[in-house]
Amino acid sequence: xxxxxxxxxxxxxxxxxxxxxxxxxxxxxxxxxxxxxxxxxxxxxxxxxxxxxxxxxxxxxxxxxxxxxxxxxxxxxxxxxxxxxxxxxxxxxxxxxxxxxxxxxxxxxxxxxxxxxxxxxxxxxxxxxxxxxxx
Length: 135
Prior knowledge:
The chain has one helix spanning 7-16, and strands spanning 48-56, 65-66, 71-77, 79-84, 90-93, 97-100, 106-109, 117-125, 133-134. By secondary structure, the chain is mainly β. The longest helix has 10 residues, at 7-16.
């Protein structure tokens, strides 16, 4: 089960970057990896946050699908090539971030012949909404 933390302390820590530390500074180094506005998130009273690890072996691809809400992709290793309808393929490499838009048909591929593509996916939805819809 998830550990419950003091919400006020967690919020203050993110806003100020203050941590307890063995080091002299005691200040967390916060780096924004990606920032993007959206109007496609759920608006109901309760939302569900999902954090998912995905691994595509060399040559693997995702099913052709769409998402009801945006999906943030953060690449840990390898390259994930995203093919969105109406767009050129988008290679996303380790350390890069991309937000997959909602309502757009897509597939993703690991075009490497020898390296996996490993990513963390962040998804906010209405509770129990399927992660992807086949198309």
